[in-house]
Every structure is written in structure tokens, then in C-alpha cells.
Design a protein that fits this description.
With 215 residues, the protein is of the alpha+beta class. It folds into 2 domains: 99 residues, Type I PLP-dependent aspartate aminotransferase-like (Major domain) (Aspartate Aminotransferase, domain 2, 3-Layer(aba) Sandwich); 106 residues, Alpha-Beta Complex (Aspartate Aminotransferase, domain 1). The protein contains 6 helices and 8 strands. Strands 4, 5, 6, 7 and 8 form a 5-stranded antiparallel beta sheet that branches. β4 and β5 form a beta hairpin. The longest helix has 22 residues. The two termini are 26 Å apart. The model has no long low-confidence stretch (mean pLDDT 95).
């Protein structure tokens, strides 16, 4: 989670140096943050370029770049970029359908509610298991930092690898992230509801209770 005003200050320094500010909403956009449709909005900034991908097509290969006309025109410098399938009507229709479903089925609100339930459950596990050093997240995007010592924050990298494989045995797929490979990353589809959140927490509780994970 970014500190308050982090992006505003970063943008200020970049622009003062003559640079452009680009944000990537591939994993955190399209309502996943719950409180906002785009995650960068939580920082009250307006980027120069926004990149969009994966969830935009809900499985269909679709991506986009959003920017200003001035920046786009600056790329008209004689170097041609060509993409065989760019802007094809099928992909455009799929992208529009995804936006319609997000709006009509209230999936941003669902991400906010289910995400709150998930984070509350994960925090409850942190109160019971010293292996969990920190729980953080927004909407349906959460991280669980595993440590062997809460004082030194020694990363529990092997433990994290064990947890994701044991959760897979329970039918739950998550991943590992972070420079030390000790953060469990949860970013389920935004149709993931409060019942699903309870199921994940319950199964994670079972795994974390196994003897080999006690620290």
C-alpha cells in the first residue's frame, strides 16, 4: 500500500525533471480496488499515460494505452508501429461487454465488500499465527507477508512456497510476490464474494496450523 501523497510527490519530481508519469492498471484496475475504479485515483493524481490489460478482456487478449492527444501525436515521428489485430471489432465488443458486466452486476461494490471481508479474515489469522508478519491490501488485492521473526522480519520464503502448494491441494490458487518471495498475493476474480473469502480464510487457517509451519 502506498503512503498518502506518495504518487503526488513522485509525479511532482518526475515532471520537474521533464518526465512523464505512467501508471500500470493491469492488475489493480477495473474496479478491483473497490473504493475506486482505477487504483491511481486513491492517490488523487492524474497520470500522463495509463496502461491497461488482462482483466480488460476477461480472458480475451486485449490491452490498451490511454494518454493525451499531445503525447500520442509525439509518437508520429516517422517510425511506424503496426499491429495486425489492433482495434479489431471483436476485441472492442468484448472489452465493452466486460465494462457492461462490471457496471450492471455491481462488481466494483462487490470487490469492496468481499475485499473487506477477506482482509478482516486474514488479519484474524495474523492474530493467531506468528508466521504472518503483516497483512495489507485494498479491495480484492491482498498481500500476506510471512516472516520467521516479527522483530527482525526475517523472510519466510520456504514457508510461503509450502503454503501456496498446500492451498492448491485444497483447490485454491494464489501466488508469491515481493523481492524476497515471502508475500502471499491474493487477487481473485472480482466476482469473488464474501462466501469465497470465508472459504479461503478457512483453508489458509488449516494450512497455517500444520506442524511444519510453526515458528
Amino acid at each position: 500500500m502506498l503512503p498518502d501523497n506518495y504518487l503526488a510527490e513522485a509525479f511532482r519530481h518526475v515532471r520537474a525533471a521533464g518526465g512523464l508519469c505512467l501508471v500500470d492498471e493491469v492488475q489493480v484496475g477495473f474496479g478491483r480496488a473497490g473504493s475506486h475504479f482505477w487504483a491511481f485515483e486513491t492517490q488523487n493524481v492524474v497520470p500522463d499515460i495509463v496502461t491497461l490489460g488482462k482483466p480488460m478482456g476477461n480472458g480475451h487478449p486485449l490491452a490498451a494505452v490511454v494518454t493525451t492527444a499531445d503525447i500520442a501525436d509525439a509518437f508520429a515521428n516517422g517510425m511506424e508501429y503496426f499491429n495486425t489485430f489492433a482495434g479489431n471489432p471483436v476485441s472492442c465488443a468484448i472489452g465493452m461487454a466486460v465494462l457492461d458486466v462490471i457496471e450492471n452486476e455491481g462488481l466494483q461494490k462487490n470487490a469492496r465488500q468481499a475485499g473487506r471481508r477477506l482482509l478482516e479474515g486474514l488479519q484474524g489469522l495474523a492474530d493467531s499465527y506468528p508466521l504472518i508478519g503483516h497483512v495489507r491490501g485494498l479491495g480484492l488485492y491482498a498481500g500476506i507477508e510471512l516472516v520467521t521473526d516479527r522483530e527482525t522480519l526475517e523472510p519466510a520464503t520456504e514457508h510461503a512456497d509450502y503454503v501456496i502448494n498446500r492451498l492448491r491441494d485444497h483447490g485454491i490458487l494464489i501466488s508469491i510476490d515481493g523481492p524476497l518471495d515471502n508475500v502471499l498475493k491474493l487477487k481473485p476474480p472480482i466476482v469473488f464474494d464474501e462466501t469465497n473469502a470465508d472459504e479461503v480464510v478457512a483453508n489458509l487457517d488449516k494450512v497455517l496450523g500444520e506442524d511444519c509451519l510453526q515458528v
